[in-house]
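In practice, a research group might receive sequence data for several interacting partners and want a quick structural hypothesis before committing to experiments. The following worked case mirrors that situation: the sequences arrive first, and a predicted assembly follows.
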Amino acid sequence: MRYELYYWGEIQGRGEYVRLALEDVGADYIDVARQPGGTDKMMRQMEKGPTPSFAPPYLKAGKLMIGQTANILLYLGEKHGLAPKTAAGRLWTHQLQLTISDFVVEVHDTHHPIAGGLYYEDQKPEAKRRSADFLEHRVPKYLGYFEAVLNANKAGKGRALVGARTTYADLSLFQVVAGMRYAFPQAMRKAERKFPRVVAVHDAVAARPRIRAYVDSPRRIPFNQMGIFRYYPELDAG
Amino acid sequence: MRYELYYWGEIQGRGEYVRLALEDVGADYIDVARQPGGTDKMMRQMEKGPTPSFAPPYLKAGKLMIGQTANILLYLGEKHGLAPKTAAGRLWTHQLQLTISDFVVEVHDTHHPIAGGLYYEDQKPEAKRRSADFLEHRVPKYLGYFEAVLNANKAGKGRALVGARTTYADLSLFQVVAGMRYAFPQAMRKAERKFPRVVAVHDAVAARPRIRAYVDSPRRIPFNQMGIFRYYPELDAG
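A structural hypothesis for the assembly, expressed as tokens:
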């Protein structure tokens, strides 16, 4: 079966967590909105059928249409061994993913604290205030949480959040570190010293052959100023 | 087995979605932080064990400690018949719940657009701008989405989002309507006219005997100015 991923073709965004999972398991998939006419197809189809999505990404898997990033990963994780086989292990992996989802919302709101529908330029002072708080309080809290989880999971040997094997939560944590380095390079350089295990997961995921091949390929859309992780020097903290 | 729910004892907040599910199935549970010393116990225990939580709520279910609201509902839904039995039906219910989670984040940020750690009084102008955008663009988009889902689900006869039976997503939609009525009474009065099916789900859930008994009991914490849904008249739109 060939999966069909529907997500904006110009950005990594939330779709990237799904792309990383598909790439890591070597799945056969098509990134629909990167094909000619694909974005129109995505928008037309999104609201149709018995399980419409509120927003991209969504994944067509045979007859299933699955929306919400973490939900797609729940499905793929179980199907492709990117999550433990036990019910308890699957819930735990999903819990970590949902916490990453919460973090991603906060990242987005650093440059759009007032409204996603307004330009960044229309909310710059607010973005500065929100980013300062985000870097001072939220980033240490989130990264500290994942650091503690890694520290407690002896089976993972510092390279996996859950058990001994890589899960979709590890792939997502890789993306968080990569994105933070792009968006807040100065603040992240300092923060990384305090969270070596988080960085180690990033490095372990980056070294996985399929992820390395993907990141080096044109299939990986570069970070840019339209995505969730954006680089505005004035929002970074030295 | 007696469940132990860990959530702030003074607010409905995110814990309320779990409370509604536990109440609706008549589960034996204890709301730990509402007992003497319970909040301390919640905070001490939260970061311990093999599956620590980033924040409340979390649920102790036998040996399991499950965090993240939607994840807890995924577990309870399967266990107590508050979700379909099929894998596809469970994914769809969870997708709807995750969309409600996204909405709840946006509700919170109407009064805290800059930082959750600052007082509302320190971000009032920003809260006004964010709330205006929220009411004009986001509320119709979200409620319109759920209205369309209800319209398409003929089996639910306008009273259920998924199939013919009540799921945890319906209980959560009830809470969203109740909360919006408290936080934005004027705007909600107008909005409800456009989303009669959403209101019908609220009413159907409110009429369920266990939910009615719960809402009328002292176990239901009243809406207040510390929770996620807060009433600030200056943020409401007439």
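Before designing any experiment, note the following. The domain at 3-80 of chain B is CATH 3.40.30.10 (Glutaredoxin). Residues 145 and 195 of chain B are 10 Å apart (CA to CA).
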